[in-house]
Design goal:
four-stranded antiparallel sheet; globular; six-stranded mixed sheet; Immunoglobulin-like; about 5% helix; 2 domains; mainly beta; about 240 residues; single chain
């Protein structure tokens, strides 16, 4: 698990597995984003506006027309989130109406994920998925946690917990997690499809150190799994089911 500190804010980057795709993402500071990585930005001010920038890179040898999907995973009541890609959209738009053409081996710097806390403390979590318009399975996603105005929220980010990546991944019918959740009281694993719908939810024993997650009822494809401990999301990563 890797962690970077960037600029005046605390920025945490949790790594996940890489996979083959046309697109990649990079922070302006030069940190490469793997598919499904989670970045957390924190400010103890309860009234804050974030303008989160990430650059999209076309690694292929052909021009790609790319759109962005915004998927709110958890939202602080009273806050607002929106994004810019080609144009800037209001809070009612979840998929960019415009695609942006990225030439081969070029970097597109026109994305921003915007968040206004409007005086409300807490953590809002948004997944941004970049996808090629003529091949929607050619995607890369980043999850951004916007934390505002709460030392408690900051402490939750810093909790002394550890968890392995899912293995095997890809998997056929089940995957495993190794973890240490210290004095936690409850824990669960949520599995979501690429449009953000929860398709499976399984509780695990926080006092154990190993979990087996059954996915035999899910069809082959790309998913994301969230690990939630005592109501706090501590991991959100990509899962591939392949039969």
């Amino acid at each position: 698990m890797k962690r970077f500190y960037i600029s005046a804010l605390f920025l945490f980057l949790f790594g996940s597995m890489a996979s083959a795709q046309s697109l990649s993402l990079m922070l302006p500071a030069g940190n490469t984003i793997q598919n499904g990585d989670t970045v957390t930005v924190v400010d103890t001010n309860s009234t804050v506006s974030y303008n989160f920038i990430v650059w999209a890179i076309n690694n292929s040898t052909t021009t790609k027309n790319v759109k962005v999907r915004r998927t709110p995973l958890s939202v602080v009541a009273g806050s607002e989130n929106y994004f810019c890609w080609g144009n800037c959209y209001d809070t009612s738009v979840y998929v960019s109406l415009d695609s942006v053409s990225i030439a081969p081996k070029n970097i597109e710097k026109g994305f921003s994920g915007d968040y206004d806390s409007d005086g409300h403390s807490g953590k809002t979590t948004i997944r941004y998925t970049f996808f090629v318009t003529d091949n929607p399975n050619d995607t890369i996603a980043i999850i951004v946690e916007f934390v505002a105005g709460s030392s408690v929220a900051y402490e939750n980010v810093q909790r002394e917990v550890s968890i392995s990546n899912a293995y095997p991944n890809p998997t056929k019918d089940r995957f495993f997690l190794d973890y240490n959740f210290a004095d936690s009281r409850n824990a669960k694993v949520e599995i979501m499809n690429v449009v953000g719908n929860i398709v499976s939810e399984q509780y695990i024993n926080p006092q154990s150190s190993h979990a087996s997650i059954n996915v035999e009822n899910l069809s082959s494809g790309i998913y994301f799994y969230n690990v939630i401990v005592d109501g706090n999301k501590i991991a959100s990563k990509k899962l591939i089911i392949q039969r």
